[in-house]
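Posting this for the archive.
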Amino acid sequence: MCIRSMTRSAVFELENDLCYRPAHPFIVTLNGKTVYEACNTNVFSLFSLLPGTSAFLLLRGGKTIFPMIKTIIAHR
């Protein structure tokens, strides 16, 4: 879930029952490009986003694929 979206960055928090860290590290991809290879925190940020554009964020952990959010940033 996106908890804060700024002009060129966004902050996300996993919705799970664990404090601070997920059960297993996960991969974060943005528009098909890997941003984090082994993210091990429930809160993470994306930087250098382009204002006025849409992006696709995908979290992958083990055999599971989590399409988390389709539009990250769509500022005018």
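Residues 14 and 74 are 21 Å apart (CA to CA). Residues 69-76 have pLDDT under 50 and may be disordered.
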